[in-house]
Automatic annotation (TrEMBL):
Keywords: Signal. The keyword Transmembrane helix does not apply. It comes from the Bacteria. It comes from Hymenobacter metallilatus. Residues 36-145 form the DUF4440 domain. It holds the Pfam family DUF4440. Residues 1-21 form the signal peptide. This is Nuclear transport factor 2 family protein.
Length: 158
């Protein structure tokens, strides 16, 4: 009788364990996809590719700059158009993506160095940032950034 009960318990666990393994594969595939999309988004910010930016930022985006200023989607994209947010280059130094909910939600954290236009005296203008991003996979629109939060880091020379 005990063996029969143990067998029934083990059989009952087989379904959820199989579903968990499938979710894990979906999460792993989503993490790889989002890592690639992060790099493409940074490139679009540098190149001022507004079509890509309109697609990858969700309508309810909350974009918090390293100085604490927040923008919604329209404000942030407009800041790039107006030249208030300028990026000559964005170098990804570290990137970590974790996907959840069967590959429908991703949390990204990383470290980047942004090369900004030179300072008035001609010296290089770099920003070292740690950041966190939350992306949600919309069934019609694909992956979209819903949250960006960054924090300035000390200069590497210090």
């Amino acid at each position: 009788m005990k063996k029969l009960m143990l067998l029934l318990v083990l059989l009952g666990l087989a379904g959820p364990l199989r579903a968990l393994a499938q979710a894990s594969k979906k999460d792993q595939a989503a993490a790889k996809e989002v890592a690639l999309l992060e790099r493409q988004r940074f490139e679009a910010q540098v190149k001022k590719d507004y079509a890509v930016l309109e697609k990858v930022f969700a309508e309810d985006l909350v974009y918090t700059h390293s100085n604490g200023k927040q923008n919604n989607k329209q404000e942030y994209i407009q800041s790039i158009r107006d030249g208030r947010s300028q990026y000559d280059q964005i170098e990804v130094e570290a990137l970590n993506v974790r996907a959840y909910h069967h590959g429908r939600t991703a949390v990204v954290n990383g470290t980047i160095t942004i090369t900004l236009p030179p300072k008035p005296d001609g010296t290089p203008n770099l920003a070292h940032l740690k950041y966190v991003v939350v992306q949600i996979k919309d069934p019609q629109k694909g992956w979209q950034v819903v949250l960006w939060q960054s924090q300035k880091q000390p200069d590497k020379g210090m």
